[in-house]
Amino acid sequence: MKRFLYDLAHARAGDKGDLCNIGVIARRPEYWPVLQREVTAERVKAWFGDWCRGPVERYELPNLQALNFVLHGALDGGGLVSLRLDTQGKTYGFALLRMEIEVPDDLEVPRLV
Amino acid sequence: MPSAPLRIAGASGFWGDRNDALLDQLRGGPVDFVMLDYLAEITMSILRVKKMRDPNAGYAGDFLKALAPALGEIVARGVRVTTNAGGMNPRGCAEAVVALARQQGHTGLRVGLVEGDDLVDRLGALHDAGVPLSHLDTGAPFASIRERVLAANAYLGADPIAEALRQGAQIVVTGRCTDSALALGPLLFHYGWAADDWNRRAAGVIAGHVIECGGQASGGNFAGGWETVPDLANLGYPIVEVDESGDFTVTKHPGLGGLVSAAVVKEQLLYEIGDPRAYRTPDATADFTSFTLTDLGGDRVRIAGVRGGPPPDQLKVSIAYQDGFTNAVGLTFVWPHAIERARATERLLLERCAKLGIQIDAHHVDWIGVNGAWGPMAPPPPEQPAEVLFRMAIRTRDRDSAKRFGEEIAPLVLSGVPGACSGLLTGRPEPRPVVNFWPALVPRDAVSPRVEVLVA
Q1: Which of B271, B275, B326 is nearest residue A12 as measured by Cβ atoms?
Q2: Nearest-by-Cβ selection for A23 from B41, B271, B436
Q3: Are B377 and A48 an interchain contact pair (Cβ–Cβ within 8 Å)?
């Protein structure tokens, strides 16, 4: 079944120049394998579309059951020069959590939205 | 018998944070050190502009506002303070602290000053001597901005802060240093960790990283359950209790609001870290995948077993340079066909710019309420939204063009498409000079930190 990533994870976004850093954390231990399988760098890159002009890197932190994404060229040149409303990508964590992912039917995931 | 851990409290996460957090951290319970971070990439550029206007400015004046009502308590209890509030003018900031201490009768207060991060006068010579200074992320050549450089500051580490503490400083003021150094400096001073004890140094880096962003590590900006965080209005900022081994507990004062849970601390751990196995600072390279994290309950989270390695042999330098101007205008359109009228207004403004010779290097349109924050990730708009805030921003090298663009919006209330009001972006918006940020690397031996202690 398709579910918002929000139901399985929480996230925090930050900026470094034109790079957006998004940490994505499993809300429960049983969600961690789903995140590893579903939230790939390719899918994140596709989700951001032309708002992410460079590559996306994904790092795993098994000790925190979390993924860290680095999106290159995702802030319209960086927080100081960006013309966007959200110059530093502060809301991009929530933006990523709105992506839908495939969740096994037998996994119980309460709806949070 | 193990000695008591060193308690370091965070009391500022950026310039603009709450000035009363320092007093809260002092009065809420026992602390040994308080660290206050004021510097983001953006802040250094703003401080540079301020210093250009006034040579005595250029530091985060908020630190003095936070300190004024707290200094008596700091002196009476022997708490020590570290801060990078010095920004572009650490000496000016340290002298202001000395003046405040004298004014309040705390003569003899020792104020540490760390300088040596400012490389602006030597940048050209370094480049001529073969240091590439290429853009750290894009690889772009330094020559493309060399004539437009306004400031250049290396990220210093924790050792100069520890040295200032050894010389008896009770308050240490730095310019650009890594945020985590404000916590690691006190740890190096207190425990005397060896210069090559990479695991303990990395643990101190991570402890500092956790509390460098103020309330973000104790329930502020918590996406994993904001509705469960008690009393944000009295948010207790985070505290780390660090053992000699480097293992530490994240907590907060019990009488204040907020929440320290595994989920809260994880969000802050991941904040802006890049590759988690190689978090590089001048003091050590920290591995964020190496440690265990345990929620002990009662607003206590334990982090143990941090591993690290040596730092890179180059230091990061943040270069600020002039990069043209931006301006933004807006109008709110109401039902019906609000988005169509926003589109028409974008076309109209571009036609006016072409007609009047207003030069635009780039433009960007948001329909706030529809896709302003998220662009292509936003869900499709409702067929007929009740209102849409049209916002159009431009970038240009020409200040006059940026100014004239700002003058083109108000006339549209009478001469544009109907059904609009001004509201948020009213009048004639003024152009904003862009001071952009250029990260680069310099050899470590090109930077010589200087430590001095001023006495009130």
Answers
A1: B271
A2: B271
A3: yes
pLDDT score of A30 more than 80: yes
Query: Over the stretch B402-413, which tens digit does the pLDDT of each residue have?
Result: 999 999 999 999
- Kindly state whether residue A11 falls inside one of the protein's structural domains: yes
* Domain span holding position A33: 2-102
Chain B residues in contact with A46 by the CB 8 A cut-off are none
Q: Tell me the nearest-neighbour CA distance from A106 into chain B, angstroms.
A: 23
Token match 């026992």: residue? B30
pTM, 2 dp: 0.97
Q: Which CATH number does the domain housing residue B330 bear? A: 3.30.70
Is B40 a domain residue? yes
Number of domains in chain B: 2
Q: Residue A112 falls within a domain, yes or no? A: no
For residue B223, being part of any structural domain is answered with yes
Interface check A100 vs B, CB under 8 A: no
pLDDT at B45: 81
- What's the DSSP call for residue A46? H
Residue A31 lies in a domain: yes
Q: Are residues B328 and B190 in the same domain?
A: no
Is A16 an 8 Å CB contact of chain B?
yes
Average pLDDT over residues B143-156: 96
> B48 lies in which domain range?
6-117+155-312
Instruction: Give tens-digit pLDDT for B188-211.
Output: 999 999 999 999 999 999 999 999
Which of B41, B145, B272 is the best mutation test for A, with the most CBs of A within 10 A?
Answer: B272
Q: Distance between CA B69 and CA B78 in Å, rounded?
A: 16
Are B133 and B143 spatial neighbours (Cβ–Cβ below 8 Å)? no
In the prediction, which pLDDT does B3 show?
80
- Partners of residue B291 in chain A, C-beta under 8 Å: 63
